[in-house]
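Late entry, written up from scratch paper. The run itself happened at the end of the previous shift, but nothing got recorded in the book at the time, so transcribing now.
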Amino acid sequence: MNATPDKADDLIVVGKIFSVHGVRGEVKVFSFTDPIDNLLDYPRWTLRHEGVVKQVELVKGRLSQKGLVVKLKDLDDRDEARLLSGYEICVPQSLLPNLTDGEYYWYQLVGLKVVNQDEQLFGKVDHLLETGANDVLVVRPCAGSLDDRERLLPYTAQCVLAIDLEAGVMRVEWDADF
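Output as recorded:
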């Protein structure tokens, strides 16, 4: 493992190590990619946890019932692998595939101000939740927001009217009382 990280502001979190697997240093990984095994397409990862940053190389990986099981280069000990539990898996933003117009990565939506059709500011997108039916925007109040309510809005074409990344605004069709 190398201690030389990529530029921190260029890194995007694409997964998280949550446990060990077996006795040979394999780790269990929760992938934020879709499909989840797309994470295995990135041969070098930057791991981050509580200010510690490490570079690792992927040797191999496979799907399991609860995510991925991954073997990292020079990691052959269960106890050493256990120390990586909780680390975020990051890759440089430049390695992510280009999207078509109207498609966005979740990290691009986080922090956008959410304004409804009546120009009422609900707050900012804090994070997104993946549900069975559709993704859900978690909107938390910010300075100047309508009230101090957290809102859960469906990330659907019926709700999200427009996204302007440059202006930092998402326009939604949503009643303030709902």
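The two ends are 50 Å apart (CA to CA).
(Scratch paper discarded after transcription.)
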